Amino acid sequence: MTDSNNPLLELSAVSRSYPEPAGRIPVLTGIDLSVKPGEWVAVTGPSGSGKTTLLNLIALLDTPDSGSIKLDGREIAGLPEDQAAELRARRLGMVFQLHHLLPQCSALENVLLPTIPAGIDGETAMERAKSLLRRIGLESRMNHFPAQLSGGECQRVAVARALINSPSLLLADEPTGALDLHATDALLELLAGFHRDGMTILMVTHSERAAAAAQRRYVLRNGTLAQS
Ligand SMILES: Nc1ncnc2c1ncn2[C@@H]1O[C@H](COP(=O)(O)OP(=O)(O)O)[C@@H](O)[C@H]1O
Ligand SMILES: [Mg+2]
Fold it and tell me: How far is residue 19 from each of residues 6, 27, 54, 159, 174, measured CA to CA in Å?
């Protein structure tokens, strides 16, 4: 059970460097970050500052050189891949700059896909998917394919897909990066709605507009985070 006084996500002294011919290049040099249940936190920083590196560590797509990453008080950095995959499927939702929808699947099928490995029964999954499609304003177009939807609509479908397994934490990497102003505002409004309903969101972005929608902000600079 998540206790609202304790952080849902807590990083301490997290470091990550990449090997280069000339030696290891440090990208993150000591990240401390804490996100409470129900918070919407934005991490900003210029291109190349390590935002995607940071999010990939939290999503268990990568392992830190050192430091601790805790979800609900449990250490998750360096989990074996099978446990990491299970945790990713059940507890984490992810949205990227590009929607990565499967082009051969309808909006509804794309939203339903993550329920299969999570073992959610078909009827429950269908109910949830339709309710999410209603929520993102695409119920009448749930049988359309990504090519028949706008970029902004596809990104909203990607948000529904990220939320279908009722994750504890929604991770978003430049979620508005490929959208025009109108679609950006529609997506931020959608995220704000899920946040009001209690969803915890950690978003990394170089967009001031996107970051301004969050409740609390950190800036990533020279490998460390500062609250702003
Ligand atoms: N797999 C990798 N191997 C080597 N260097 C990488 C790798 N991924 C990212 N980098 C480097 O790490 C730095 C941070 O990248 P990234 O996390 O993608 O930044 P951001 O998302 O803020 O633009 C950049 O200098 C980038 O070139
Ligand atoms: Mg990035």
Answer: 35, 11, 17, 34, 25
